[in-house]
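We treat protein structure as text, and this decision shapes the records that our systems exchange. Because each token names a local backbone shape, the row as a whole describes the fold. An entry from our holdings is shown next, in its original layout:
>
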Amino acid sequence: MDVKDFYYELPQELIAQDPLEDRSSSRLLVLHKETGELEHTGFWHLADYLNPGDCLVVNNTKVIPARLFGEREGTQAKIEVLLLKRKEHDVWETLVKPGRKAKPGTRILFGGGLLTGEVLEIVEDGNRLIQFTYEGIFEEILDKLGQMPLPPYITHQLQDKNRYQTVYAKQEGSAAAPTAGLHFTPELLEAIRGKGISIAEVTLHVGLGTFRPVKAEQVQDHHMHSEFYQIDDTAAKLINETKRNGGRIICVGTTSCRTIESAAKGDVVQAGSGWTDIFIYPGYQFKILDALITNFHLPESTLVMLVSALAGREQVMHAYEIAVKEEYRFFSFGDAMFIC
């Protein structure tokens, strides 16, 4: 299967640069996967497409202000560090720019020395392991010095950090937001619960591997980076009971989808935690997921491939073509799809 089979033309002006004032006022393109029928509606109408007995699965990860700007000790050389994943208590795998200024032994000062990082080693993909030293609580220092790690296609400054968090974000650890969840408001979640739909919270800390471009020419040659996930007993029980009772499992976002599919044994989700590098593309047989709420994704990305595994490549590419024609807003701060 060629990666170029998942390419589509996207005008720059359709890439959403700012979040809407009201989270749930975004548009919603509904794709009925059995028939290919498309409906245009608003996200605030989502509850109309859900049935009593269904279960929404949301990813409650919280984005940390993971982008740090510092100087190499003893020089004025500027260095940007992006925290990717915590390896030990104060050791993080990071992405450093420019990499040539960050050889092992290099010390980087942030906030005039409020936080210091020492490069320990260079690992896979040129990432750096950095050990941090500081006084006080790391998360508080990070909150003071760090910036939200917005994707490179967003060039506007984010005025409110909370707009790159879901309203149900709890577990700190992501380098990017699970953006399908950005459309939900407390009121919409309340309306959904009021209709007899349960909500199961799982955690997957989103790494940059999700967004890395696919460099292979053949889809099956691409290797996903691993991300940490966790499903507690309560969530596993809710999901399994819903399946048993004939309700639909509707994932909010590709990260929730990858979490439950990683934890599936047959048609049952197992509680637990671990690392997953699951790669879902056409030909994959879903074990748990029935429907998906998701944003519009980059051409030739692993996320477009996942969506195509659920609804079929031709139907998905046709839906994207219509979304471009109808001028939907794309990517992280853009509009949403419901594939049901």
In short: The CA atoms of residues 237 and 301 lie 32 Å apart. The chain has a mean pLDDT of 95. Residues 67-145 form a domain with the Thrombin, subunit H fold (CATH 2.40.10.240). The first strand starts at residue 27 and ends at 31.
